[in-house]
Each structure stands twice: as C-alpha cells, then as structure tokens.
Design a protein that fits this description.
This protein is an alpha/beta fold. It folds into three domains: 209 residues, Glutamyl-tRNA reductase, N-terminal domain (Beta Polymerase, domain 2), CATH 3.30.460.30; 135 residues, Rossmann fold; 83 residues, no CATH class. 49% of the residues lie in helices and 11% in strands. The protein has 18 helices and ten strands. It has a six-stranded parallel sheet with strand order 7-6-5-8-9-10, with helices on both faces. It has a four-stranded antiparallel sheet with strand order 2-3-1-4, with helices on both faces. Helix 6 crosses helix 8, helix 9 runs parallel beside helix 10 and helix 16 runs antiparallel to helix 17. The longest helix is centred in the C-terminal third of the chain and has 31 residues. The chain is elongated and about 115 Å long.
C-alpha cells in the first residue's frame, strides 16, 4: 500500500526569513513543477529499463530532461552555469506517485504519495531552492499515514493557521489542488484526500463556532494599524497589491473610517476594479513614490518575488516628509518591504510574524470551539485511514471472489451434466442452479470478508489478510 507523506514548515517552526527562502510559489505551475510522477506523460526516461515501474534507476526532483530552457535562464537558483551544467548536478532518487504543493505566506507543505523516506522529499525541496539539506532540516516536520491525513485536515479547517478560523487557507488549498491537477500530479489518493479535506473543513465550520467572528491576516494587520493610530479618519492609507489579501485589508480599512485609501498595483486595471468595488482610489504603479509622500499607513500584499520598496527610496521619501512617522505592514511572502527600511528614523515595519500578538487574543476566545473541531478532525482522519488501509484488502477480496466463483462454476457444470443424463435439462433448470450457486458463494464469502473488514477496524490488517489467505489457500498453485 502506497504511503501518504506530508512534509513542511510553517509559522511555528520557521521565521519569516526561512519561509521566504524555501517558498515554492513559483514552482507550482506545470512547467516549473519540481517533482516528477510515475507514468507522467511528459516524463521520458533515458532507457527502456528506467521507464519501467519496477526499475530502481528512477529520478526524483527536476529531471535533466524536464528542465525548461527558460527556467535555466531565468531562475537564479539554477542559473549558476549553463543548462547542461545544471543537468549534471541532478541527483537520481525516486519518483512520486502523486504530489501536491501548498505554498503560502505562513506555510510551505508538500503532500506526496510514494513509498520512499521523507528525507528524499526534503532533499528534492532543497534542490528546487538551491539550498542544502542542513539548511532546511531543522525547520521541517514530517508526517506519515494518519498523522499526515490529520495534519492536512487541520490545515483545511484552519486549526493550524496563525489566525484560528481564518477562511483564506481553504481557498489556498483549493488553488493548490487545482495546480496539482494541472501538473498531472493528482491521482486517486490526492483527489480523495483533498475532497475529503474540503468536506471536513465544511463540517467544522457548520458544526462549531471556530470560524465565528473569525479574523484573517488582513484583519489583524488593520487591528495593528488601529492600535498605532487612535483615529483612523485622520490618516491616509496605501494598499500595495490588489489580490484577495489586499482586498480584505481594504475592506477592513474602509470599515474603520480611513480618510483616504489609495490602491497601487502593477496591473492598473486590477487596482481600478478593486477601487470601484470598495470605494478607494486607484493609482498607477509609477506614482508609488508620490503616494508614499502623503500616506501614513502602508499595507503591502503583492505577489512579487523581489522587494518593491527599498531603503534608498524611503530615505528620500522621509526627507521630503520631514520624518513624519510611517507604518508599514508587510503581509506578502516573499516580503515586499526591504527589511533595511525598518532601520530608518520614523519608519516602522511590521511583518507577518509581528501580527502574532494580535492573533493570540483571538485564539483565547475560540479555544472551546477549537476542541470540538479537533474531535471532528480526529474522527474523520480515522475514517479516512480505514478507507486508505482497506485498499490493501482489494487483491484478497478479488482472489476470494475469483476462487469461489471458479469452484461454483466447476460444480455447476458437473451437476448440469448429471441432470442431463437423467433427462432433467433446460434453460429454467440452468438459471435456477446458477442463482443457487451464486447465493451459496455469497454466503460463504460473508465470514472471511467480514473478518477482513474487522481486522482493519482493529488495526490488524496484515494479520487478517494472512489468516484469510492461508485458510482459503488462496496462494496455493
């Protein structure tokens, strides 16, 4: 039975700098997907032998033949030399059966369906980011089987989020699933596991109050701004970015009476669309520096892989503002604000990790509801593990049915020949005997099949299979 692995790091195990370094956001498109799958249509082995499912000469990570030329030219993690030099450094390991990558501001997690050790997964992750195993290992957690299932269900239900009950993670998980499907890495296990995760999250939200008055990272960011500025109506805010997180922050700012809200995004049409929805003012990206001269609060949440605001820019801005204080809340991953900006006089930069104090107040109010939600996750994880374990029963069930039907057919033919000699024949007789034989087989199968089912229910699956196969002599030639 193929194993379910989940490896990752999150806001509890790694600081923002580490999460930033090992983020896999840009690797989730089909062309940049860092792992290979058995039987993947785009995978071409070097020889017929290495293309066999039973071959041990397989590869894990980005195969030399699968690295796009554009990746070699544009990605700094792999462009230290020519593309051929990059290929020469690839390490042969193992192929995955299925995979899913979840990369957000607070976590990077990989769900992998395969039979190898988690160390190989960690190494492949390091290879994708151009880092060493030793750099990543201290921050990583590795789960297998029921623990992996339970962790994923907790993540989907927002029980493992920085902000307990926040709704964004479920949408992010759905997006990760869609990307896995597009990369052709979602098979029966990932499909079943993710759909079950979604249903568990729905059950948690409907049966508990864990999401009542739930807050998001965006909400926490605005709450922090309110602590800094008592009267929001006397201040202007700038929203850098126009995605989902930015929209939530914009709505919270408007609800708290901000005097003016400007929205700046590289794609002006998206900034304009958001401004029209919430009543803000869209400005061209080129006017960013001018916006900084008048605004007091900047909430940044773009998808940029490089900082957008640097210390040199802000040094000039603060000089023109006559050092009037500015507060930046950077909720992007990777960060939009160069950390050096925080060293300037009058400038205060808060990142995701700084929001924990705000979040902890929210946690205390929902502790009881979280316990109820955890019980649901435990129950559903146990049920899923039973289903997963039962997959190994299928070959034995098929063997039982095949042997029983084979014996029944032999006896049926023998009986029909005897009846024919006695002058008792005809289609009605045949149908009656076939029906009786099928009924006998079903009743004889009931006890061994029930034993198999109960053996898995009581975590004795392999022993139960062995006993049934021995008693019924299913492996005798």
């Amino acid at each position: 039975m193929t194993k379910i692995h989940l490896i990752g790091l999150n806001h509890r195990t790694a600081a923002v700098e580490v999460r930033e370094k090992f983020a896999l956001t840009e690797f989730t498109s089909p062309i940049m997907w860092p792992f290979l799958r058995k039987k993947h249509p785009n995978y071409k082995a070097d020889s017929p032998e290495s293309n066999s499912e039973t071959s041990s000469e397989t590869s894990f990570g980005t195969s030399p033949k699968s690295i796009p030329e554009s990746f070699c030219n544009s990605n700094p993690e792999t462009s230290s030399g020519t593309c051929s030099e990059t290929k020469a450094t690839q390490k042969p390991q193992v192929l995955l059966d299925e995979a899913l990558i979840l990369s957000t501001c607070n976590r990077v997690e990989i769900v992998a369906i395969y039979d190898g050790p988690c160390e190989d997964l960690i190494q492949a992750w390091c290879d994708a980011r151009g880092a060493s195993f030793e750099e990543l290992k201290p921050y990583v957690y590795c789960y297998e089987g029921k623990e992996a299932i339970m962790h994923l269900f907790r993540v989907a239900s927002s029980l493992d989020s920085l902000v307990l009950g926040e709704p964004q993670i479920l949408g992010q998980l759905k997006s990760a699933y869609r990307l896995s499907v597009e990369a052709n890495h979602a098979g029966i296990m990932v499909n079943k596991l993710l759909h079950k995760s979604f249903s568990v999250a729905k059950r948690v939200r409907s049966e508990t109050g864990v999401a009542s008055s739930a807050v998001s990272i965006s909400y926490a960011a605005v709450e922090l701004a309110k602590r800094i500025f008592d009267d929001m109506s006397e201040h202007e805010a700038l929203l850098l970015g126009a995605g989902e997180m930015a929209e939530l922050a914009a709505m919270h700012l408007m609800n708290n009476g901000i005097s003016r809200l400007c929205i700046v995004n590289r794609t002006f049409s998206r900034a304009e669309e958001l401004a029209n929805r919430i009543g803000g003012e869209a400005l061209a990206f080129e006017s960013l520096k001018d916006c900084l001269l008048s605004t007091d609060i900047v909430i940044s949440s773009t998808g940029s892989v490089e900082p957008i605001i640097y210390a040199d820019t802000m040094r000039d801005v603060m000089k023109q503002r006559k050092n009037r204080p500015m507060f930046f809340i950077d909720i992007a991953m990777p960060r939009d604000i160069d950390p050096a900006v925080n060293n300037l006089d009058g400038v205060y930069v808060y990142d995701i990790d700084d929001l924990k104090e705000v979040v902890e107040e929210n946690l205390a109010q929902r502790k009881d509801e979280a316990l109820k939600a955890a019980a649901i996750v435990e129950e559903e994880s146990h049920n899923f593990e039973l289903w997963h374990g039962s997959l190994s029963l299928k070959p034995t069930i098929l063997d039982i049915e095949e042997k029983g039907n084979s014996i029944a057919q032999e006896e049926l033919q023998t009986t029909l020949k005897r009846l024919e000699k006695l002058g008792i024949a005809g289609e009605e007789v045949r149908k009656a005997l076939e029906k009786m034989a099928a009924s006998i087989v079903r009743k004889c199968h009931h006890a061994p099949l029930r034993h198999l089912a109960l053996s898995y229910k009581h975590n004795q699956g392999e022993n139960g299979i062995a006993v049934v196969r021995q008693i019924l002599k299913l492996d005798d030639n």
